[in-house]
Amino acid sequence: MDGNNNDYSAFLSVFHLAKRLPLPAENEHSRPRIDLIVFLMDLRNQHSVETVKASLAYVDVNYFLGKVCFLAVGGRAVKHQSIEMYTLKQLADSYSSPLIPAELESAERRSAIAQRLIQILKVAAGLVPGVSALALSSLITPSFKTETQRC
User: Fold this and answer.
1) How confident is the model over 19-30, as pLDDT tens digits?
2) Exposed end of the chain (fewer CB within 10 Å): N or C?
3) pTM here?
């Protein structure tokens, strides 16, 4: 983080995790606004990808205009991958949403991913003057290339 805790303190109290969508109907009236949906997919677990695919049907189409991203973990353990990164890239592209490959083994990497997600959240929430969430995909530079991009 950049040392300015005021920038992030509001975000830290509003992260909510869900294993799948739709969200439960209880407390819907008091649920805070959802500024960003991050779908976490584990390349070593086909079920995690299937859960994400099933959950996508419950996301309002307007969220795919800069308020959804996909986070793929487990890419370094190539021997244990059951999903190819290219497949996840195709999924993200089909929803016009960015795919962020992430390795979470070390505290340093987890911190870097957390900072990146907070920056994405700030844009999606409209807290970065002059930057639209519609441009989110173009602002995220992928740290990998798919097979078709290498050709």
Assistant:
1) 888 888 888 888
2) C
3) 0.78
